[in-house]
Amino acid sequence: MVKKGLTSVGKYLPAGLLQHLDLRQDETSRAQARWQACVPGPLAEHVRPLRYEQGLLSVQADSSAWAGRLRQQQQGLVELLRREPFFKHLRGFQVHVVPHARAAPKPKPADGREGAHHHRLSTQAARLILDTAEGIDDARLQTALRRLGNAAADARENVSAETAPDSSPRPK
Description:
GMP Synthetase, Chain A, domain 3; 3-stranded mixed β-sheet
């Protein structure tokens, strides 16, 4: 009996890419867990870590007020977080304000399941996927990789367009 279904994409991708993506996800999960354990309740509920690279922790705040509160407490929070081995090289924060009203709704998966996790690909990962697709002989896999890489690029363009100031002429 022949099994039909998806072929494991992992055997077609460079091992380094899969390891990089796994490490990136693990680091993000660890940063979020340590943040929740160390940062005082209300601040941790309204400011969430996104990425930790080269001593800089990128965080998302629900409002400019919460971003301001984080900035006021930055020195003490950096000292507090540096006590954790994971954050021992922390230099500071990069704050992104994304109000709840403007935050993009979480898309439903194509199969309609609730609660599925959606992760955005970095520009570098999307570019690597597109470059990898060019070297793949399997036409279906190549098409799937191109679709994945292009979807990440399209999502970034849509987010940029939604957050850009409206330059359309105003009615008089």
